[in-house]
Design a protein that fits this description.
46 residues; mainly alpha
Length: 46
């Protein structure tokens, strides 16, 4: 019983950290894409 509770807690925490990591990666990707776009626009002014 105690083991199951521990596994559930750990699983939830693991899931949470994974989703946090995913959101961080997504944010980083968006930021890098945004910076690339800005850089391109600065390099090639219209």
């Amino acid at each position: 019983m105690l083991w199951n509770r521990t596994v559930k807690k750990y699983g939830n925490r693991k899931k949470l950290s994974v989703s946090k990591l995913a959101s961080l990666i997504c944010r980083r990707e968006i930021m890098s894409q945004f910076q690339n776009t800005v850089f391109k626009n600065e390099m090639n002014p219209k």
